[in-house]
Amino acid sequence: MTPYAAMAYRTHTVVRAMHHQRKLLLGAVQAVANASDEAFADAFGRLVPQIEANFAQEETLMESVGYAGLHAQRQDNALLLSALHHAESRVTAGELDLGRQVVATLPDLLSLHRFSGTLALTGTGLRKGRQRGRIAPPRPARHGHRGLSRYRPVG
Predict the structure, then answer these.
(1) Backbone angles phi, psi at 137, to 5 degrees
(2) CA-CA to 12 of 20 to 30 Å: which in 6, 48, 116, 117?
(3) What percent of the chain has pLDDT over 70?
(4) Does residue 138 sit within a domain?
(5) Domain limits at 64?
């Protein structure tokens, strides 16, 4: 297997692992959404660390394939986690309506967040970066290309 094919395989494996983890996370979000008012604050409090652990695992997976956009992904993760921690303190203080609003938006936020990370890895992630074998950050995909044929080495 060529180094390029090996990288394609590793990246595909990482994307599948990220997809699986995110699917489990969305199930946990749904469970919190269905929690009674009495159990909601505790369920929300357990969800935030679960999202944090999921993001950490995704970052580790991205790092394993040398994704050059990892720093920006970590910034996005930190921003979302910061908002969740602020909401968590308010939910704990009894603002259940705010928590329910956050939980209602989480599937869309997490799906968009996952989509952008996955797109970066699959759409352009196999382009070899110019700096120490790193993977180049995302750029718009060329129209009309399907499968691995759209991945081409850079430089």
Answers:
(1) -65, 165
(2) 48
(3) 65
(4) no
(5) 3-125
Residue 91 placed within a domain? yes
23 vs 58, 84, 91, 134, CA distance in Å? Answer: 13, 19, 24, 28
Number of domains in the chain: 1
151 part of a folded domain: no
Q: What distance, in Å, lies between the first and last C-alpha atoms of the chain?
A: 21
Does some domain include residue 110? yes
The alpha carbon of 117 is separated from its chain's Cα centroid by a whole number of angstroms, namely 5
Distance CA 119, CA 115 (A): 6
Per the rule left: phi > 0, alpha: psi between -120 and 50, beta: everything else, 142 is beta
**Residue with more model confidence, 122 or 148:** 122
Q: What is the CATH number of the domain that holds 25?
A: 1.20.120
Residue 96: is its pLDDT beyond 70? yes
Burial of 125 (0-12, 13-18, 19+ CB in 10 A): buried
For residue 123, with 0-12 CB atoms within 10 Å meaning exposed, 13-18 middle and 19 or more buried, which class applies?
middle
SS3 breakdown of the chain: % helix, strand, coil, rounded to 5?
A: 75, 0, 25
Which residues pair with residue 135 across a beta bridge? Answer: 67, 128
Q: How many C-beta atoms surround the C-beta of residue 140 within 10 A?
A: 7
